[in-house]
Amino acid sequence: MSQHPSQPKVPPNEPSRLAALLAFELLDTPAEAMFDNITALAAQICNTPIALISLVDAERQWFKSRVGLGASETPRELAFCAHAINRDELFEVENALFDPRFSEHPQVNNAPDIRFYAGMPLSDGHGHNLGTLCVIDRQPRQLNEQQRQSLKMLAQQTVQLFELRLQARQQREQAALQQAMLGSAGTAVLVVDPDGLIQQVSPGVTALLGYNAPDLIGRPLDLLLCQDDHQPTKRTSSTSTFHANGQSQLHEVQVRHGAGQSIPVLCNFSPICMEGGSDLGYLCVVHDLSYREEALQRLQRLAAQLPGMVYQFQLFEDGRSCFPYASQGIEMIYGLTPDEVHESASEAFARIYPEDFNSVSASIVESAASLDVWHQEYRVSHPSRGVIWVEGRAAPQRRSDGSILWHGFISDITERKHLERVKNEFVSTVSHELRTPLTSITGSLGLINGGALGAVPDSIKEMLAIAEGNSRRLRQLIDDLLDMDKLIAGKMPFNLQPIKLNDLLAECDASHQGFAHQLDVNLLHTDCPDLFVLADLQRLQQVLSNLLSNALKFSPVHGTVRLYSEFEHDRVRILVSDQGPGIPAEFSARIFEKFSQVDSSDRRKKGGTGLGLAISKELIERMDGSIGFVSDAQNGSIFWVELPLHRVNDAE
Ligand code: ADP
Asked: What is the rounded CA–CA span in Å between residue 400 and residue 108?
């Protein structure tokens, strides 16, 4: 379908033309005198009643300035200007009534009764005709050559004003941004000329440095720097060196505040160069560091109260390490100052007791790999205190540069280690000294009570039975203490071998039937497939015996205790279940600790020392196994141990 001649064509570059128009930010803005002057001039020169600066957007033509016309916009399809923007030259219609494109036009046949139209496109210089500068008359007519030239020049002038207007606006925005940046809290900016004299300052200098602009302008920047009173000559080598090589540089310096005190600041010196390299001086951006200084002092005061050192230790990918922060306490731990380890930790490592060096290094590597908390007890050869024991604990954090940073604490545990050793020696001596005579007392009482020396008179029978029971209990306690002592000292030998599970369970069952019978409790065991566990037979029997005797002791009369096994992949689980009172939740966390019993009256009622489970845990863990339990008050408890499975083929 062919287009009606009155329909204006859409320019081929319409999308970019519209974008260019929008970018000038002119549409729907208030009238401005500079544009109204142009339309007034156009009307006057061309001697027309109407002159317009018309901008053609997607739907309409909108008048940035108008003389002799009431409407502020008209639909685009009715706009003469929409025709004019399709060409780069002046568009003239002498008499619209005789022009087929406009003879039916409502604005020709009605008000404003357009007859004559001359519109010069407003080109942005990139092929975009944004609209027109046009003149309109109600009489048919022509422009003379001079008027046409004037209209063209005024149109060029209009576009130049568009551009200047936009630039002015962008400059205002830029200035506001710069003002906001310069005025930002905690920062001061100084413009310094090549001779080191301050030329301009931002408002921040008053808040940060305590000077008003006139106090500083024209004065040397070096005057602001705090100089060592005894070295006045130092001033000359100050700021001039900070920007000497023409590159930005950061320096932490002390500056003198207007009120007299010195304050720590970070200065960024950046050269100001024109294209072509001529030196205009430099920009000095000053950031306040007093908050950091205060935080550091607060940390130092707090750290001084701690019985050890707080620190950050950093390990880099290339193996280098250092202490970015160490409190003064490092003198007590390593006999070094924080400065001595700030760049390299090697001095501190050199003081680790040689025998402990490998385990400390390995634990650091492990913590770096797993990102688990590092925890280690080790010895340090302190230059003035001799060999001391320390305990370190630190949480690792991976940094973006690939290094690991630990945050931690090291304390002196020499005294604690000494006490532990004394206590352990005491326990082992006392235990050994007691065990021998007690064995003979228990044996003798057993013989007497068994009637080996003749009938025991009724009057002393009961007392002798109590004496025998108590001496057996005392022996049990001493045996437990000795076991614990051996385990702690690492002196308990383990002979790991394949053990046939069925035989082990049957044997444990048989050896506890007497005790079960005595308590009126059923003890059952379940056979299992031919499996072998890898363990020390005697130690495993000791653990199972402890679990079974606990289960029996805490079972109700006529209750049932079961001994059975389960296996999965390469592990075997041996379980002992009972129908007793269960383990209270609040006690669960402590049940494997030494001397812990749910109820201290258990010792009297049920016997036992509270050491059995603690010893069992140590024994099982040293056989590469684990121990645990599930329990509730309704169903009783199930205690279990888990050990590595030994393959039948291997056992054969
Ligand atoms: P003890 O020599 O006192 O039995 P254990 O370390 O073997 O020492 O056990 C510690 C405590 O745990 C017991 O005194 C008891 O309070 C609780 N306990 C252990 N096994 C059971 C169980 N099967 N049922 C209820 N309580 C138990």
From this structure: 74
